[in-house]
Amino acid sequence: MSLLKFEHKIIEIDEVAHRILEAGITKERAEFLQKLLAHNNHKTTIQEVPPKEEGQPPTYTLATPDVTLNPIVKVYNRELKTPEGKRVTPDYWNQKTTKIEPNYWDKSKKDFLK
User: Fold this and answer.
1) C-alpha 31: how far from chain center
2) Percent of the chain that is helix, strand, coil (3-state, to 5)
3) 58 and 48 in contact (C-beta within 8 Å)?
4) Comparing C-alpha atoms, which of 26, 10, 106, 19 is closest to residue 64?
5) Which of 9, 18, 55, 81 is most buried when burial is the number of CB atoms within 10 A of its CB?
6) Which residues are within 8 A (CB) of 67 and not within 5 positions of it... i.e. 6 or more apart?
7) What is the pLDDT of residues 3-20, one digit of tens each?
């Protein structure tokens, strides 16, 4: 997950520098993040990475041409919003829950831990 790693690599896609937001993810995860970031006016690109071994599913890399975009800062500063207008929490970003709990640090309010 990109929220666990502060440093994000820069790659070149079509001769334009892109910051990798998440790598080695499923297509569904990449599409979820792409929709979320598009809703917040951030352009992203999904690249398919062929499997290293035959028979394995491909993985995907989500990157943005905005090399200053840092998802850690955006999520923890509560700058991103869901399509419903709620502030994105770390659990929502990591797809652990669809319920937005503003007190994301309070583990007693987390459904998935019970």
Assistant:
1) 9
2) 30, 25, 50
3) yes
4) 19
5) 18
6) 10, 17, 18, 19
7) 776 677 888 888 999 999
Q: Provide CB contacts within 8 A for 87, sequence distance 6+.
A: 78, 80, 81, 100, 102
| pTM (two decimals) | 0.83
In sequence order, the 6+-apart residues with CB closer than 8 A to the CB of 25 are 59, 60, 61, 62
d(CA 76, CA 21): 15
Q: Which residue has the tokens 């599913």?
A: 57
| Residue range 35-91, pLDDT digits in tens | 999 999 999 999 999 888 888 999 999 999 999 999 999 998 999 999 999 999 888
**Tokens 């998440």 appear where?**
22
